Description:
Number of helices: 12
Bound molecules: UDP-4-deoxy-4-formamido-beta-L-arabinopyranose
Largest sheet: 7 strands, parallel
Order of helices and strands: EHEHEHEHHEHEEHEEEHEEHEHHH
Number of strands: 13
Distance between the termini: 56 Å
Amino acid sequence: MTNPKILVTGGAGFIGSHACVALIAAGYRPVVLDTLVNSDARSLRRVSRITGVEPPLVRCDVRDAAALDCAFAEHDIAAVLHLAGLKAVGHSVSDPIGYYDVNVAGSLALVRAMERAGVRTLIFSSSATVYGDTPRSPIRESAPYAAVNPYGRTKVMVERMLADLARADARWGIACLRFFNPIGAHESGLLGEHPHGPPDNLVPYISQVAVGERAHVVVHGNDYETPDGTGVRDYVHVMDVAEGHVAALRHAADRGGMLAVNLGTGCGASVLEVISAFERASGRHIALRVGPRRPGDAPAYWADVQHARDRLGWCARRSLDQMCADSWRWQLANPHGFDEREPALAARAVI
Ligand code: WQD
């Protein structure tokens, strides 16, 4: 099949839009299914400016069985990348049922629609939060499930459901990709992360401090048992994560069963090290204040990445400095996200 069509749920989002770029580069044709609740359709026009191909958008909710059947009927889908879902840990604590509905019921509806359409190759975007906050690092895929919040528990439930499906029906080829901390942006500066409201995550927040939109970063605790006392995470370039999806797609299409794989660099970086890297990339000083620990934060975790190398032939290639340089390029070129407003134009509007 030339240029197989791949349904990308959540494909207008941060990781989804970068996955579309990687899919097109690898000879696939993405079809995006997205509600646009947490994303922007203009990201697909940016995908087109990068690749020359604008993925068609099916605007619907992944829980809508009839809309899913239409999408599979209209497009000759060969496989599915499932990235649509809610992903804010704190919000999942205050709205657990909303998270189980979208993340678990949504995944179930998708698998049912795939079965009806005879499509049985699925790449599921899971998360390192399935390991909970007490694992010893580097974390191997064999570490037990120990999610400590509703968001992480939705990922565990879907992984277990997919493992049972793969055991029951050998025609299914499934990969669960456990992202660590995806950051960065496409090197063109045309795609990136633009959170609605104050960013929860570290790097988008630092980026807004660097560009003068926020006064300082609050470092959530500097009394952890880590080299400089601040939290340590495995930051991985979003394009490496996107390319990891392509590698997993190739693997799942050729082999049945379910594979769970970490997507990380295998290296940890502290909050202060990330801030320093961003200062090098931007040439700007990042003001910071030390605050109390953030509830639910683990002191330190990073991935064991041997399994991804052995089974997918994938490893992260981009450095922390490149992640910060690519983030900064996106931030500078897109102060208003996907709005094409020129800052000068905005000023004239005020006058
Ligand atoms: C990283 C470090 C904070 C903000 C979350 C989700 C995870 C995944 C990635 C979806 C920690 C510190 C942060 C700030 C800070 N999302 N920090 N000041 O919490 O590791 O992971 O996003 O899959 O599921 O849990 O990422 O960027 O929020 O925090 O000091 O303003 O930066 O304490 O040590 P996290 P994060």
